[in-house]
Amino acid sequence: MRALASGARGRPFKSGLPDQGKGANMAYKIDPTKCIACGTCQSVCPQNPPAPEKDEETGKFKIVPERCKECGTCAENCPVEAISKG
Ligand code: SF4
Ligand code: SF4
Fold first, then answer.
1. Tens digits of per-residue pLDDT, 15-65?
2. Phi, psi torsion values for 38, nearest 5 degrees
3. How far is residue 80 CA from its own chain's centroid?
4. Does the CB atom of residue 36 touch ligand 1 within 6 A?
5. 14 alpha carbon to ligand 1 midpoint, in Å?
């Protein structure tokens, strides 16, 4: 549970959302040990609301898997290469 739930703490996974992502398994993920919380991923994400959001507990960003459509834009623009496909 911990690996899948990272980045979605306190937010239960939902299924069946219309075209807002392909599921938690393939969504992009942020490595919190690399993230410098610059917010670029949130700025460039085409989803509305953006899939990356700030984790108030850690101060780092996380990707809400249900919103991620796996476009890769965030990973291409992250300055520290903290984002990879899950
Ligand atoms: S772009 Fe990279 S470093 Fe910046 S907030 Fe997103 S994951 Fe963190
Ligand atoms: S892969 Fe695309 S949809 Fe998913 S979080 Fe990154 S920018 Fe947003």
1. 444 444 555 568 999 999 999 999 999 999 999 999 999 999 999 999 999
2. -80, -20
3. 15
4. yes
5. 24
